[in-house]
Every structure is written in C-alpha cells, then in structure tokens.
Amino acid sequence: MRTNVDHATAHPVADATVFGRDDAPGIAQLAEDLLAFIPVYYNGNRTLVVTSQGIFYLPWRCQWVKTNVLQHFAISQRDLRRACEQDLNLSLFTPLVITSAKVVYAPMKVREPISRNDGAHGYFRIDAIRSADSISPSATRLGIGDIASIDILMPRPKVLTRVHEARSSLILQEARNVPYPSL
User: Fold this and answer.
1) How far apart are CA 69 and CA 31, in angstroms?
2) Cβ(55)–Cβ(13) under 8 Å?
3) pLDDT band at 137 (very low <50, low <70, confident <90, very high)
4) Residue 154: which residues within 8 A CB-CB, separation 6 or more?
5) What sign does the dihedral 174-177-180-182 (CA atoms) show?
6) Distance between CA atoms of 64 and 47, rounded to whole angstroms?
7) In the chain, count of helices (H) and strands (E)?
8) In angstroms, rounded to a whole number, what is the distance separating the alpha carbons of residues 40 and 84?
9) Single pTM value for the model
C-alpha cells in the first residue's frame, strides 16, 4: 500500500512515498540508479532511498538493502571487507564498492542508534555528492544531486575522509582486476 508521509513528520522528507512490502520496487529496479540509502525510524526500521527519480521509503532495514544491492552485483560482503582491510586498513565502516558499475558508496552516520546493533549509517554514492557544508562542529549537510539535502552526524573533515577512503577503495578494487604485466 502506497502512502505519503504527512507534513508533521520528523523525517527530512515530507510528502515522500512510503511503500509497503507488497508494492515496493525491487532491488533490481533500484540498483543502477541508487544515490543514497539511509536508515530511518518510521513505523519501525525503514530505509529512505534517494534515486535520480525521487525520494521514497522502503519497508526494509538499511542492512537488508545493502545486502541485496551487493547480491544484485554478485559481490561478497566478506570479500569486500577483507579487500578494504588489506588495501586501506579499514575493518569498520567499509565503503560499498561496485567495480562493474564503477560506483562506490561511502558510509556516513545519520542517526543515533536506539539499541545495540541498530544501524546508524547510511550509504551515499560519492559521485552524487554535490556539497558538504558544515552546519555545526559535529554535523554536516550533504547535498545529493539536485534531489535532497541530508544531515550527517559527523564533522565535515570526517565526512571528507570517508569520501576519500571510498574513492581510494574504488581505485584499488579496479586495480585488483587488472592483471600484472608479464615480463
């Protein structure tokens, strides 16, 4: 059942479409055009999705969306994490690198977790980030294309570090697929 978020919502996006489990678009429809996916609380855990076509809420947790995007592109989350550990010495908050599509998503903290193991990080496609403006010493506003502005609960230097790590991760992952020249 499709509904719209009312104007009194605490979410960053009023009038966004809220999909139910029966009518939500599949990951195969979204994967190529996904600009950001962000965990939100709205009648339980949901995911705010930003695409070039607009903004809407999916009925699934952000972790589910992340796992299914990786499965869509036939990427092992464990292998991706190991590659980031080897290349960048990152074991937590690893970027999502999709070398076949030449895109990478940087993880950013978007909310305070309410319980243990509660996802607080959204994923932002780095080539869609148009601006990163400091709004306080501990928060940054990201401009995602011409579509949305999302507040990140991280200082601007940390946001820029995450973007640079993600870009480096994409470059190094692409280099892994290039064979060494024979001598």
Assistant:
1) 6
2) yes
3) very high
4) 108, 109, 138, 139, 140, 162
5) negative
6) 9
7) 4, 11
8) 27
9) 0.86
In a domain, 181, yes or no: no
**35 confidence band (pLDDT: 50, 70, 90):** very high
* Domain residue limits at 167: 3-176
69 falls within a domain: yes
Helix residue spans in the chain (DSSP H): 27-30, 62-72, 77-88, 156-176
Query: Is residue 110 a contact partner of residue 153, using CB atoms and an 8 Å limit?
Result: yes
The helix-helix angle for 77-88 and 62-72 (nearest 10°) equals 90
pLDDT at 9: 43
What is the total count of domains within the chain? Answer: 1
Distance of CA 166 to the CA centre of its chain: 11
Task: Say yes or no to pLDDT of 73 above 80.
Answer: yes
Report, as an integer, the average pLDDT of 172-177: 79
> Six-digit token pair at 95?
């970027």
DSSP 3-state assignment of 127? helix
Q: Please give the structure tokens belonging to residue 116.
A: 């243990």
